[in-house]
Amino acid sequence: MNVPRALGRIAPCGGHRLSGHVGGRSARALAYRAAGLIALTPLLLSSLAPVAGAVPGAGNSSDQTDGPAPVQILDLTTSSGQATEVAQSGLDDAQTSTDSGSGDGTDAETSTPSAEEASSAGNGSSVRPAPASGTTSSVRHAFVQAAGAADAQFPSILPAATDPQADAALLTDPLEVDRFLVAGFTWTGGADLPEGVRIYLRVRENGTWSPWYLNEAADAGRDDRTTSGTGEFITGGADAIQASVVGGSLPAGLKLALVPSQPQGEEVLDADDLKTTEAPPTPVIEDAAVQPQAGRSGALESSAEPTGQSTSAVTAQSITPASFSMAETTARPASTVPAAVPAALPVTTSANGLPVPVTTRAEWGANASYMSWDPDYASAGHVVVHHTAGTNNYSAGQSASIVRGIYYYHAVTLDWGDIGYNFLIDKYGTVFEGRSGSVAAPAGRMSVGAHARGVNTGTMGLSMMGDYSSVSPSDAQLSSVGKMAGWFLRRAGITDANGWAGLNVWTTERYQAGSTISMPRILGHRDVGYTSCPGNVGYSKLGTIRTIAQQQISGSGGWKAESGAWYYLKSDGAKATGWVADAGRWYYLDASKGGAMATGWLRDGSSWYYLDGSKGGAMATGWVSDGGSWYYLNSDGALATGWVADAGRWYYLDASKGGAMATGWVSDGGVLVLP
Questions:
Q1: Would you tell me how many other CB atoms lie within 10 Å of the CB of residue 25?
Q2: Residue 463 above 50 pLDDT?
Q3: What are phi and psi for residue 111, nearest 5 degrees?
Q4: Neighbour tally for 579: CB within 10 Å
């Protein structure tokens, strides 16, 4: 649920002050390595299903409604490359606690509690449910996931060769900070880090510490300037961090930027005001990239197509769930559900024949004052697939806020003047416009981005939000990526998504400027840069993305916009009607309106459903706000009535008022109770 942000900074209390002492790491190194293996054991035993779950409500339940807040800056080295007090504090006084909250939640129930149970939850009028959570279970730590759990967020991995704590040259204490969604490191003195230097970060979300993540130097950025920083690291709303630098020669001016959901100004964190916290040992995630060949000029034919690619297609199913019957679209509960349905975001666009609804810059809230790079269009015929890196623990409601954070980090912190990607796709399949002018790009052209230095011109950059080093992108995410790639290639007159073509190199990065290289029409960032992006598993899914793109090019089915309405075409070209599942979401296509996609409240048999226009018409689950009242939709989408337990609190949904959440005293079986 939405929790008001604390005003100001909490003074150090209950933690320890930062220490500048360094020393005594040999014995602790053995302890850290042993503790790391212990922490890793449940991962190896749990047989996790390696999928970045697109479970509604996964991640921090706080929505994108945090107020404006400054970007927090943590100085780690001075302009001459000397370590700051903060950067050395963890070397001598690292935390060894092994306590870690699992963050387990309480699933929604429909049974009726006793009056005592109901009243013990507190006054319902002072509690605001989390909107559109879709499930009442909070994210569980991957170390204790049940085997095969569909919502596993952390990958199962083996210990890395590098230990960010035992091998650290710089190590902060675990530090409490104001809540942020995007993080990244910057330095001075050149684009490359000193040889052998590696930067790691771990964060705390919902009381649980993440694994350590390697933060690579950004192999992206504008072709007309260098970038001295890492790629963005996204979170589901973190409130504590620990940073580590491994290597001999430290980068000068090293800073860690922590970007909130609505960045406004910057604040340099003072060592005297920082509060430390406890953090148990956690494993390390390092994604070894394919080692690139030396750059070469002239015509270059790659030796082989990327290997390990899945070829399974992700397609929509025109099926009707057993619980669904033909829907009644003409009736509504009498005087119970207002006709006007407010949206968290304005309705998405379908301009230029987009295959899926796209949330535009205006809709996700791009601050025009951060932009200093006007759109520049160029002919383009390749698609570069990326990932953002991060914890994968964000909720659907946080995606727009994360995009705003990436925008600030790219445009302001890295000084690119705009967001580098043309489009970003979250794990729920929602597509966001990135680089200005991307939606409006003419056929066969694209707004030049800053996503793959050297080949920004001539390509469209699609970024999957999350880290796909050891977990798979969701089906919904792959579906949207493939459809966007197919849309772009088809408009450029390209008929084979599996084909190869020449790509000009404009700035020397992996390949020599002025050369022409032969690349797949749809490629991974690592194919043209010194990076592991889009992660080992993400890279292995390029075959799936190409298959979906080819279906989009061939026009064998899928979404189509006509006269302001959306339709779904079956493989034979006929318009589907009734319920349709696509990329893990349910939609209703109204036969009485020629198969047009329905939005708003829908009655199906004896149940009511809400088709959320702000999310492309997908069937909603969890909490929905409508006309000043809150409603709860079960996991199958049906409107709930009666008592519902969510995250340890009980709520009463009044059937006599169309299922609206009650506040104040209610009569339940002749007994007055206070929800």
A1: 16
A2: yes
A3: -75, 155
A4: 23
Distance CA 91, CA 168 (A): 8
∠ CA 626-641-608, rounded to 5°: 60
The architecture that CATH gives domain 560-673 is Ribbon (2.10)
Distance (Å) of CA 618 to CA 354, 356, 599: 17, 12, 8
Asked if the model's pLDDT at residue 76 lies above 70, the reply is yes
Q: Are 497 and 385 in contact (CB under 8 A)?
A: no
Q: 14 or 297: whose pLDDT is higher? A: 14
Q: Which two tokens stand for residue 540?
A: 């292995």
Which residues fall within 8 angstroms of residue 308, CB to CB, at 6 or more apart?
539, 540
For residues 227-243, give the mean pLDDT.
96
Instruction: Kindly report whether the global pTM for this prediction surpasses the value 0.70.
Output: no
Minimum mean pLDDT range among 342-356, 590-604, 646-660: 342-356
Domain 300-314+330-556 maps to which CATH number in 2.60.60.30, 3.40.80.10, 3.50.50.60, 2.60.120.560? Answer: 3.40.80.10
Question: How far is the first Cα of the chain from the last one, in angstroms, to the nearest whole number?
Answer: 16
Residue limits of CATH 2.10.270.10 in the chain? 560-673
Alpha helical stretches, state H, 393-535: 399-408, 475-491
Q: How far apart are CA 289 and CA 282, in angstroms?
A: 22
Instruction: Give percent helix, percent strand, percent coil of the chain, each to the nearest 5.
Output: 20, 30, 55
Q: For residues 448 and 437, is the Cβ–Cβ distance under 8 A?
A: no
Residue intervals in the chain for CATH 3.40.80.10: 300-314+330-556
How far, in Å, CA of 397 to CA of 404, rounded?
13
Place of tokens 């929905």: 624
Residue 270 burial (CB count, 10 A): 10
**Cis, peptide link before residue 534, omega less than 30° from 0:** yes
Taking residues 386-394, what's their average pLDDT? 94
Q: What pLDDT, on a 0 to 100 scale, did the predictor assign at position 372?
A: 97
* Cα 440 to Cα 447: distance, rounded to the nearest angstrom: 9
> Under 8 Å CB-to-CB from 481, ≥6 apart: which residues?
385, 425, 462, 464, 473, 545, 548
CA distances from 62 to 3, 7, 529, 654 (A): 7, 17, 36, 25
Residue type, position 526, single letter: R
* Integer Cα distance of 425 and 547 in angstroms: 18
Handedness of CA 494, 497, 500, 505 (dihedral sign): positive
pLDDT in tens, 103-122: 443 333 333 333 333 333 33
Q: In this structure, what token pair is assigned to residue 457?
A: 């011109």
pLDDT digits (tens, 9 = 90+) for 418-435: 999 999 999 999 999 999
pLDDT value of residue 296: 28
CA–CA gap between residue 610 and residue 631 (Å, rounded): 10
- For tokens 């009056």, what's the residue? 115
Q: Quick check: 131 pLDDT over 60? A: no
